[in-house]
From TrEMBL:
Stated name of the protein: Short transient receptor putative channel 7
Keyword Transport appears in the UniProt entry: yes
Keywords: Ion channel, Ion transport, Receptor, Transport
PANTHER family: SHORT TRANSIENT RECEPTOR POTENTIAL CHANNEL 7 (PTHR10117:SF9), TRANSIENT RECEPTOR POTENTIAL CHANNEL (PTHR10117)
Length: 69
């Protein structure tokens, strides 16, 4: 009976330690995802600005070319 109780207690302790590790890993993954999200939003914003500038430059160039003809 004592061995059975001891085995149960040891298993419960190991399970608890594993749960704590998993919680820590989950928090780290959540932080990584959040960081990646903000990086992607920043890159998207920069790309949109560059695209707008290119569109403006193309418009200016083609606007000048159509006036010459």
């Amino acid at each position: 009976m004592k061995r059975l109780i001891k085995r149960y207690v040891l298993k419960a302790q190991v399970d608890k330690e594993n749960d704590e590790v998993n919680e820590g890993e989950l928090k780290e993954i959540k932080q990584d995802i959040s960081s990646l999200r903000y990086e992607l939003l920043e890159e998207k914003s920069q790309a949109a600005g560059e695209l707008a500038l290119l569109i403006q430059q193309l418009g200016d160039k083609f606007g000048k070319n159509t006036m010459r003809h």
